[in-house]
Amino acid sequence: MTLEASRAMVEVAYSPGQVLMGAGTSGDEFIILTTGTCRVVERLTMSGVHHPVGVEGPEIARVDAYALLGEIGLLTRAQHRHDVVAVGQVTGLKGDAATFAELLEDRELAEMIGSTAAQRLASQVVPVPAETDRGHLTMLRPMLPVDRPDYIHKLATASAETILNRFFSRARPTPKVIERLLNIDFVHQFVWVASDPDDLAVTWGEGRYILDPRCQNGVEMAVTVDEDQRGKGLGNLLVGAVAASAAAAGFDEFTAYVLAENAAMRAVLNRAGASWKRFEPGVVSTSIHPLAVAEALIPDLIGPITAATSDLIHAAEVALS
Question: Are 160 and 259 in contact (CB under 8 A)?
Fold first, then answer.
């Protein structure tokens, strides 16, 4: 934290039950908790109007000391969406928009704030209902921290063929590689998962883009569908969703590196006009504009996916810029 920012922050204290931030209020301040615990709760609404403070809906989360509150409102210039209520005695440091801007001058803090904001926004994104071209219903949502154990388990138990198609090697990814795949900031890496509509915690596949160092303004995509869910059109859907998000983020090159023998993924991208070239022995690649991919695979979902993408990208980009 910069010296100027620390001097500008004000010590604050809250009694049990006191609201630190209220739903519907302007997002022009932030608080760093120093002691105590707070509940993050949904404020009940009627006809779009928030009920008075104290009329609470369901609890969404609890936050403890060193938690950052209010950064989403500052990054997106939006009103607070939830009440933050002190469980017991709570203390913290409060700052305004100017102080927040000072914090972002510190690169490490900026990266932490950007990642925190993106993950919180990801948890608030309303899942996008989708139907594959084969009539399979699913819900698309961003990958969340709670998906971590399931993702690690799936990598550990995936077949040799799945590992080979995903990583071009029969060796399972190292812990360092797995950590990089789970470090999702929705700027350098964006991930959609296809979930069971009846239980969003159950995922059937994931699609992601990662910045491609070989391209000036491009991303590399990767899609994996659970082995017992293949043949239902989820691969098409996830490729299209990732492409729509890449287009919304302003990228103009969407590259796939695929095993030459991976006929299923090549067929998906052929629908978007893929032109294949040899990349390395046994691997081919194609580069297409992401919007062209989305239009070919998920034309009816481009709008909702773009809308769901925009806040995530904006919040993280502001903090990481």
Answer: no
Q: How far is CA 129 from CA 274, 300, 308, in A?
A: 27, 11, 12
Give the number of domains in the chain. 2
Q: How many helices (H) and strands (E) does the chain have?
A: 11, 18
Beta-sheet strands, E only, within 154-246: 189-196, 199-211, 218-225
Q: Which residues of 111-136 are buried (b: 16+ CB within 10 A; e: fewer)?
A: eebbbbbbbbbbeebeebebebeeeb
Domain extent at residue 168: 128-320
Count of CB atoms situated within 10 Å of the CB of 257: 16
Do 75 and 139 share a domain, yes or no?
Answer: no
Consecutive 10-residue averages of pLDDT for the chain (321 residues): 64 93 83 91 54 60 83 72 90 88 73 68 83 97 89 95 93 91 85 96 96 91 97 97 96 96 96 96 97 97 92 60 44
Say how far apart CA 269 and CA 57 lie, in whole Å.
Answer: 45
Q: What is the CATH number of the domain that holds 248?
A: 3.40.630.30
For residue 152, being part of any structural domain is answered with yes
What does the alpha-carbon distance between residue 318 and residue 110 come to, in Å, rounded to a whole number?
Answer: 9
